[in-house]
Specification:
54% of the residues lie in helices and 4% in strands. By secondary structure, it is mainly α. It folds into two domains: 1-181, no CATH class; 184-409, no CATH class. α7 (184-214) crosses α10 (244-256). It starts with a helix and ends with a helix.
């Protein structure tokens, strides 16, 4: 309730201030009579920002509202949702991620709980916000314009629910993990639909900006014809900027094929332009000339197919399917979602502008939805099928390559077990011993391709618990087999074996004369330890040693 009141209060305060400044500059204008009229006009602008239409007694209705006005209430609702979620400590109560290795059932339960919490937060913000908007609609009624109460409640409820839910989801987790709240298949459809719509809207924006740049002279002529003055010119510029979002959606409808209308019996489409009398709005000066469309205009029809191809690849990349016939169906499903979204945008961007001829302004929602569904859906189905086949083919090739590498390693191992002739031994290059390579990064660098990693010799307790020391060795014939000797104090430790010099593979051997190393002093003899036992000497079977680590070797 506090978030809803704060949003309405700030928004109405800003609009009332701007309307009051305009009324002071032009008291005899159309912004109302006196302070009550100014406040009533600000309330009507606030309702129009939520796409709530107005009825004109005896003159039809006004439904062609600028979508750019939605930016201010959407931003205020988003900030209110963030404050609401942070005040409730939602990030602490329900974090976005679980520890790694959590069961899948627990992850799904957490996702459902997060979605339920987001929906509850959106409803808790949207319900009081819509009720307060009903009071604003009662205040905004006058003799000329009367807002539709049903559209007021629906517009405020949907906008508040969307902005509040998005803010709560952003509080629970960062932007990059917000989509992970959805299941994988739903996430693929959402991202694919967003990609297709983004390409279509970007192309519509380029088309509109290009038409405005080409028709600057006509737009200037219409502005001079109106003669709005400084204050009126500023307000006219603000209105045109706010209607620019509608123009971008009309450009998307033009690219899709159906086009849009500027009154009954008119059409602006790639197949041709048919116009009559149009309102004296300078932005409409960017419309093409009546008559047949140029040949290059038909090239824009290929953009929806390009958007569908990109959307199909995105759908498969996020959620591939093991059945080849299912991928085209999911691609066409993405086209259905994109068509439905384009139809909704077309319905929001158009509407009546009074009575008589201006009852039909903007694109037809069902025509835009049907065209985008077919164009994007067919292209997305084909690209999804091809991309899914390529992913399955690559996934099947990786195990085959790994199996072939294992077979080559086994063949090489079997060939190494055969006795080699002296000529083969002389021709074979010398390689380091596999046991000396270990399992570290440097060892993997020098390991041959296809050769499995081999662990280092010794037991893991040698480096963790035990104090390593060379085992003593009994010289041949040094003791009898009666087992009378209890210690090995008279036995010298075994001398370490001489190591062969190592070299890297691929480097030829160099013959050189090694100088004899100077004699080194003998290392000091370690003190005998009673806990070291030579288990290799069983004294002819009279001594049995029990291995305490046999369970680990098994």
């Amino acid at each position: 309730m506090l978030a809803a009141v704060w949003t309405l209060g700030v928004g109405l305060a800003v609009l009332t201030t701007l309307t009051l400044l305009g009324w002071i500059a032009d008291p005899k204008g159309a912004l109302g009579e006196g302070v009550p009229g100014v406040f009533r006009t600000a309330c009507q602008i606030w309702l129009a920002a939520h796409h709530a239409g107005f009825a004109i007694p005896g003159g039809g209705r006004i439904g062609l509202l600028p979508l750019g006005l939605m930016v201010m209430p959407a931003a205020l609702l988003y900030r209110a949702g963030l404050w609401m979620a942070r005040d409730a400590d939602l990030r602490v109560r329900l974090p976005a991620r679980l520890p790694k290795g959590s069961p899948k059932e627990k992850q799904n339960a957490r996702r459902r709980a997060q979605l339920a919490l987001i929906a509850r937060a959106g409803v808790s913000l949207a319900a009081p916000y819509a009720l307060l908007a009903g009071l604003v609609a009662l205040v905004a009624r006058n003799e000329i314009t009367q807002p539709f109460l049903a559209e007021v409640l629906a517009g405020h409820l949907l906008l508040a629910f969307g902005a509040g839910s998005l803010a709560v989801a952003r509080t629970i987790g960062p932007w990059r993990v917000m989509l992970r709240l959805l299941p994988e298949r739903s996430r693929s459809l959402v991202v694919g639909t967003a990609a297709a719509l983004a390409i279509l809207l970007a192309a519509g924006l380029v088309l509109v900006v290009g038409a405005i740049v080409v028709s600057l002279d006509e737009i200037k002529r219409l502005t001079d014809f109106l003669g709005p003055g400084l204050i009126g010119g500023t307000l006219l510029l603000i209105v045109e900027v706010l209607y620019l979002v509608n123009a971008v959606i009309w450009g998307m409808a033009y690219i899709a094929g159906p086009g849009f209308a500027i009154g009954t019996g008119t059409l602006v489409a790639p197949t041709g332009v048919r116009l009559g009398q149009i309102p004296a709005l300078p932005l409409l000066g960017a419309l093409p000339e009546p008559g047949g469309a140029p040949v290059w205009a038909m090239a824009v029809v290929a953009i929806p197919f390009l958007a569908g191809a990109v959307a199909g690849v995105v759908v498969v990349r996020i959620a591939p399917t093991p059945t080849p016939e299912a991928a085209p169906m999911w691609g066409f499903g993405c086209g259905l979602c994109a068509g439905a979204a384009a139809g909704v945008l077309a319905a929001l961007s158009g509407g009546p502008l009074g009575g008589n001829r201006l009852t039909a302004v903007g694109p037809s929602p069902w025509e835009v939805a049907f065209s985008v569904t077919l164009e994007v859906g067919i292209a997305a189905g084909i690209s999804a099928g091809v991309a899914n086949w390529w992913l399955m083919r690559r996934a099947a090739a990786e195990p085959a390559a790994a199996k072939a590498g294992t077979a080559q390693a086994g063949t090489a191992k079997a060939g190494a077990a055969k006795p080699a002739t002296p000529a083969e031994e002389a021709a074979a290059p010398e390689t380091p011993e596999p046991a000396d390579r270990g399992t570290g990064p440097l060892a993997r660098l020098f390991r041959r391709r296809g050769e499995p990693a081999r662990p280092l010799p010794g037991h893991w307790l040698d480096a963790t618990e035990c104090e390593t020391q060379p085992l003593p060795s009994r010289p041949a014939g040094g003791a009898d087999e009666d087992g009378a000797a209890g210690t090995f104090g008279d036995v010298a430790p075994a001398a370490p074996a001489a190591k062969r010099p190592r070299r890297l593979p691929g480097i030829p051997r160099r013959r050189r004369v090694e100088k004899p190393a100077p004699p080194r002093p003998a290392p000091p003899r370690p003190a005998p330890r009673p806990d070291i036992v030579d288990e290799t000497d069983d004294r002819g079977g009279h001594v049995i040693y029990m291995d305490p680590y046999a369970w680990d070797r098994d």
